[in-house]
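Q: Two folds, back to back.
A: First:
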Amino acid sequence: MKVLQFPLARITFGFILGILFPYYLKPEPKIIFALLFISIITFIFFYFLTKKYSTQNTYFGISTYVLSFFIGATTLIIHTDYYQKSNYTHYRSIFEKPHLISLTLREKLKNSNFNVRYIAIINHIDQAESSGRILLNIRKDSLNHEFEIGTQLRIKGTLYENSPPSNPNQFDYSNYLENKQIYAQLYADTDEISVSPEIDKNIWYYTSRLRTKIIHSLEKSNFHKTELNVAVALIMGQQQDISPEIIRDYQYAGAVHILSVSGLHIGFILLFVTFILKPLPNTKRGSFIKLIIILASLSLFGLIAGLAPSVVRSVVMFSFVAIGSHLRRSVNIYHTLLVSMLLILLFQPSFLFDVGFQLSYIALFFIIWLQPLLASIWSPKYKVSKYIWDILTVSFAAQIGTLPLSIYYFHQFPGLFFVTNLIIIPLLSIVMILGVLVMVLAAFGYVPLFLSKPLEWSIFYLNKIINSIASLEQFIIQNIPFNFYFLISFYLIIISTVIWFKKPSFNKLVMVLISTIVLQISYIKNGSDVKNQKEWIVFNSKKNTLITERNGEKVTVYANDSILKTCQKNNILTAYLVGNFSTLKTKKRIENTAFFNGKKILILDSLGIYPKNIKPDILLLTQSPKINLDRLFQSIQPKIVIADASNYKTVQKYWKATCYKQKIPFHATGEKGFYKLN
């Protein structure tokens, strides 16, 4: 694989490994900085030794890769807010009681059902200087109008630390926020907020104002709201106002990537700006002016799009393409890809853990690496058939590359992705050209009808096509069980197979066969592990009781009749089944007693009726039974008490205090998450 022969590829690989090292192992920062210093000294030593004795090249190469590893590790530590002494997580009692918090709004997020949400930067806590990002939630009912980015607020409130998933195999929102350097959330009503008259007018403020002006100009031109929201996502990468139904349609059709500004969009911008600048002469001075305008346009577009990982990656990469074109050099696309990745991670190492960033780079790499091989299968004679074939091969190359990672994260596969791309890419080119023109003019308060209406109609038909494809649900494969070992095994097979097809040889065929054996071993081991597992789980299901018993791949669910009727569509249960490679075999109503793995379980519901003379190991309280817990303990003496989310919170507080007094462990699923017995 020639890509790995590039020294830059090995350095980037070492740098990425360095980022992963402190992320997962959490070493002491002082040790990492000490090792960085040692690696720098070693690198300098071997550098001069290599200049004197050329035979020492191997040691110099190793020292280079070791240095890149520790640069990656220190880069993550330096850019991780948690390691900064001023970060609010180090403030005494920050998560225990209310504090006066001064903050600045940085970014507007998609609203939840009950709250308007912002990313905010903390400036002071109780008059002491502090730093760090939080997620600010302001109750919708109390907010008359949304705040402007850059607004400075003072709020008396308690920060809530990110909580882990409350049910097994659910999306880890806590980890997602931490990858964005957000370690806490703050909830407030407007009457608890003091607004400063001063606004922090930084780059985020001006780009937000520009986006707002563009959107208001389009609204005044009677641009339909649904199409406007999609246009803002396609052109400016802002998805906050798109309806969940439209996002779901794009997901099912395999086109959700076009709603996130990426290489496709930045490529259109580069071509558009280059076309506009054609009248400028190709002299040395004219070429330099073109380059500056192109770089400024791409950077401005990246800022307007909110500097998402996919946007940053695309802007940096196409900037290098533009620079290479200006220098009249043929740009090695692999070097461009590696340099853009290295630069982005050098300034934002946390992007490595962003799903969009991972999918973007893998898709682009496979388009560059695999698409020529697919295109060589057939050479069309006509331009139309060649255009269609190119779209198909690019689409297949990207999909093959991202398939394992997409299934790993989303557990679904849109079977009609190739049809979607074949239809929408020509239409998307029209939307992008019109969209860029309209957005630029809207920034100056002018929206010509002869441009805005075709843009609106194009997006309307784009949504219709996507909806029609998404409605063919029989082609959407959902709830695919897939773990990390399968992810690695599938990539080994894909990469080894492509290498073999590019230049067949016996050794490469052996690698394909070994990769296939590795996948089979992963499958057998996973099946064996699942088969030997047994567990009994009380889920954290709001206002309901949901219990499962799993023996290997077979799951029995215990619930009331209303839950049993709809359990096939229950997201909590579905996530559990998919995550454990299991199937739902039996549905049963909850009874007063249960037995699992030698443990006796007593379940009390709202009636509070239970068998006499029972000595349970576990007492499960559901539906807020009216009982005297002290008196109950005298007769049954359980080893642990569990209260699920079907109970009133006020009653749970009383139970918790009673258990504490009796020295009996108490587990409330609403507070600690699901309870597992295995």
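A: Second:
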Amino acid sequence: MSAEATNPEAHPEARPELRRRGRTRLDLRRLGRAALLGPTSRDRLPDAIGHVAEAHRAHHPDADLSILRRAYLLAETSHRGQMRKSGEPYITHPLAVTLILAELGAETTTLTASLLHDTVEDTDVTLDQVRTEFGDEVCFIVDGVTKVEKIDYGAAAEPETFRKMLVATGNDVRVMSIKLADRLHNMRTLGVMRPEKQARIAKVTRDVLIPLAERLGVQALKTELEDLVFAILHPEEYESTRALIAAHAGERDPLPAIADSVRAVLRDAGIAAEVQVRPRHFVSVHRIARTRGELRGSDFGRILVLVGENADCYGVLGELHTCFTPVISEFKDFIATPKFNLYQSLHTAVATPEGYVAEVIVRTRQMHRVAEAGVVALGNPYATATPDTAATATATATADAATDPDEERVDPTRPGWLSRLLDWQQSAPDPDTFWTVLRAELAQDREITVFRDDGSATGTISLPAGASCIDAAYAQHGEAAHGCIGARVNGRLTSLSSPLSDGDTVQLLLAQDASSGPAAEWLDHARTPAARIAISSWLESHPDRAMAPTSAARAPLSVVGARGGGANAVADLPGATVRLAGCCTPVPPDAVAGFLVRGGAVTVHRIHCAAVAQMRAVGRTSVAVHWRATADCRVTLLAESFGRPHLLADLTEAIAREGVEVVSATVEPPVEQRVRHTYTLQLPDAAGLPALMRAMRDVPGVYDVRRA
């Protein structure tokens, strides 16, 4: 495969997004000459790094560039004489990687580490030298990148090396930022390698690094990596997509006219906004073509609206939906509920009078920076508001890291998914399991947030889409979740296997019995690595419990009282026997309805009982019913509780204290440590029913009491 066929950059006419972004492209021959000539003078930056300084100053006008000059001089000196396979001096590679990060807005420390990222691995420079010259922070990042560079991504790669990469990323996300920029530059110049090696590197980029770029929110790197991989692994589909884009370039594009209309609408509304047309990249066009079939002119790009404040985003949305026809199914609010990778925007689509449908993205300029650069745009995660406190915090963090290189340093910008991976990777039973689960986790492209309600505090839990209550239990309680027996989702009792949706409120119910453990069936519903590993470990250590037969076949325990008690409802049908329906157990002063059934009896139901509608539907005769003057009544209650000794006795005692007689009681066998009790009770006064139910709920272990 030729270099031109493997590198989309070789087709500038097919890469309109590169012209749009205005991304600087390195002249490697010019840089090579500058690198070979060496530094010019001590009082100014070398020519070879001038473009990096210019890109850096565009994002950080007050940045001190002297450290970049010193880093370049060390890198150029240490790499002098080394050449890349493409023939350029090796120093052009760290320069190109640093330029990529500078254009994304990386802070000075990241750029310094980027210039030096290959020195410790490929030259005689040591980490101690880097620490002495540039400080602990730069040394920490260079060390992390060096460990990641040593990872073998080949077919025989040890899964354990990916664990090291994950830990290095978690300790400081800037490590992976440099690695992603490094891979992007290598992919841009991959055409000099053999086709089989191109395919191997492209596959690893697709399986591991592109998902990590998506997870870290670095969309600018992710989209270009996708296009480069697409060209190598699917050359025929790439060429057809390139031809499709080239054909569209010769046609009338409706998006600029739609953008002009949007500008006019926002100008009339007094909303200051910048409106751009953003062409789709290759892979995006390919996906849209597969989904929609024949593409129209407005499908090759989207309209981007940039404003100053969050409130302006919703103002723009209101104007668009007022002046155009909105496509409601396309609306998504990622400002109120940001994506797991920090992404925030409003997405919508509007139809024009000409019949075009244009997708519109609305965001602030700060959101745009984060959308393009992800964690790179967040700067130094250890810097604080004031210089003094920032220096202190950085010195403390780096001193701790220097004391113990293997100690994990908590990055305040660490995303929730990365924290989950770091938590479970320590307990992964073996490298193969780790690698399998890591790839499955990275394949998850959506994440949900659920709210925790444990009775004393409310927080949030981040979970992958499709997660169940079991996953929430292990995310919140760790190994204590072995004793989880149920959950309430949005206030309703549900099983642990129930899937969760974004925004759900979850209350997890734990058994008081310390010997409780998970069931083997939980593995069918667990989605997170932490839950699956914890459940599997417990089942392996308790083989007798894992294979124990279910007790569901046991007959329920029934206790029947001494007398049945008569109904206190009277039907307007002389001589008819009146029975209270067991399905809804009406009591005074419930509104009721009676129906004549076989044998001449009248069955009394609560007016809202489902059986009432069924009786009327089949033409059963309705009979007027009223309550007697006596206040006593009979009612059936269901009590849900945790299984524990003496529970039946405690519940019976609580009922007796309220002066209520037990007509009958049924206790079902425990299921997942939960027990259901059914009581038929004779109350001396119907008005005492609420107090009775409260008394039963106060019994330790009882979490729900309701009427049948």
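Q: And?
A: Residues 100 and 163 are 26 Å apart (CA to CA).
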